[in-house]
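To illustrate the input format used throughout this study, we show a single complete record. The first block contains the structure-token representation of the backbone; no residue identities are included at this stage. The design step must infer an amino acid for every position from geometry alone.
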């Protein structure tokens, strides 16, 4: 753990290093680049070789796609209580997502001119669901269910296989229940590349969404332009802003919830104006961490990814939160809504002591796929609108065009684009000819 105190000489410098944290370390981006390029050049052959190398599983191209028999077996293997929990989460996510669906609209801003927008669901998108050290069943519903609500016709999911060549049953059940039309057994940068460039077995998609480790984040950045992506979302992070009224045990528990994800690159940050709270949270984190199961990942984050910041005031806390732009921001102070309005950027904001971040991870409704590493300043979490194409609609009457022809021609002349000018003037001339022929 690292303590950053507002009285430290290097206080500002220490904060700046947090604000500029990378989503993808350079060395990982280089490795991801090699993986992506292999898949681009060699398709299925590279995909299968990389699955064998990174997942320790030998598959054939025919086994990449999850079969109907595997889906049926997965459903039978998942306890009813788990299936019910998945269904409840899907219902909450779809209800929230349905309120985000954009509506086509038309307006007449001036005589003879009709303008508007038309929204059309994408045809085929790819949803990446991490496996790795933990089967992220929740990520299945927080991606696929949103796309399904938006009306996407083909929803392709990719998730790493287990050592026996199967997909975790609960993850597979959640994917299919949420609306995935096809599921492939592949993970990491390999899956991102296959979805982006396509292979003989895996047709390319139009957009790739979903969380992942630094390799997934790097790969998404590399294929951007070939396909659309939701954001560059790397290892998870949480910032908790707390005043002197918090229960330190609760705050420590919330921070440790992020630390256990598994890559060792996660971050959990406390910002408080109370030295007493800072020390109490530090003590609680050390005590609680000893009782948790995932000691490997936890110890990595405890050593390198925990930052306890004591600021001078809650005004400064809001400034720090906005500059850090966390993936998850928990606000534990008096009037959390008022505080949240002062924060410039955050992926999701959890208001008050009764709203722990895992509620957003699992059941609340908004997608838990959120921007990390400060990218909340220009990215946002997945929403239904992200699965739509937006087209502007423009319609002029003859009189409306004639009213603007001089300006159109002037712009064309100023930019040296005479064909643009003729496209407009030819209509004026046609109108004159028609009038003179009468």
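Output of the design step:
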């Amino acid at each position: 753990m690292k303590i950053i105190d507002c009285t430290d000489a290097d206080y500002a410098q220490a904060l700046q290093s947090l604000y500029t944290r990378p989503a993808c370390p350079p060395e990982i981006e280089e490795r991801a680049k090699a993986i992506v390029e292999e898949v681009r050049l060699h398709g299925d052959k590279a995909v299968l070789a990389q699955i064998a190398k990174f997942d320790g599983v030998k598959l054939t191209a025919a086994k990449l796609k999850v079969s109907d028999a595997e889906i049926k077996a997965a459903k039978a293997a998942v306890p009813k209580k788990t299936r019910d929990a998945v269904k409840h989460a899907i219902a909450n996510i779809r209800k929230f997502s349905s309120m985000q669906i954009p509506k086509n609209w038309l307006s007449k801003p001036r005589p003879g001119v009709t303008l508007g927008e038309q929204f059309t669901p994408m045809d085929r998108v790819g949803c990446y669901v991490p496996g790795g050290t933990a089967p992220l069943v929740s990520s299945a519903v927080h991606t696929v269910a949103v796309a399904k609500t938006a009306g996407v016709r083909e929803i392709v999911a990719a998730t790493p296989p287990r050592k026996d060549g199967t997909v975790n049953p609960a993850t597979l059940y959640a994917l299919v229940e949420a609306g995935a039309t096809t599921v492939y057994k592949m993970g990491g940068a390999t899956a991102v590349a296959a979805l982006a460039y396509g292979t003989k077995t895996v047709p390319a998609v139009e957009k790739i969404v979903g969380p992942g480790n630094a390799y997934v984040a790097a790969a998404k950045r590399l294929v951007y332009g070939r396909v659309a992506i939701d954001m560059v979302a790397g290892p998870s992070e949480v910032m908790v802003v707390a005043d002197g009224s918090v229960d330190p045990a609760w705050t420590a528990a919330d921070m440790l919830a992020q630390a256990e994800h598994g890559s060792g690159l996660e971050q959990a940050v406390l910002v408080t104006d109370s030295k007493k709270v800072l020390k109490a949270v530090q003590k609680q984190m050390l005590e609680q961490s000893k009782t948790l199961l995932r000691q490997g990942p936890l110890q990595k984050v405890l050593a390198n990814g925990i930052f306890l910041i004591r600021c001078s005031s809650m005004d400064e806390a809001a400034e720090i939160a906005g500059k850090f732009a966390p993936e998850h921001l928990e606000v534990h102070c008096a009037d959390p809504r008022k505080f949240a309005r002062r924060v410039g950027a955050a992926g999701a904001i959890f208001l008050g002591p009764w709203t722990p971040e895992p509620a957003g991870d699992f059941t609340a409704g908004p997608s838990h796929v959120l921007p990390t590493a400060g990218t909340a300043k220009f990215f946002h979490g997945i929403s239904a609108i992200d699965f739509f194409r937006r087209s502007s609609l423009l319609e002029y009457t003859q009189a409306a065009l004639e009213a603007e022809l001089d300006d159109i021609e002037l712009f064309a002349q100023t930019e040296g684009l005479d064909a643009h000018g003729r496209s407009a003037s030819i209509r004026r001339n046609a109108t004159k000819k028609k009038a003179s022929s009468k």
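Structural context for interpreting the output: The mean pLDDT is 93. Residues 325 and 374 are 5 Å apart (CA to CA).
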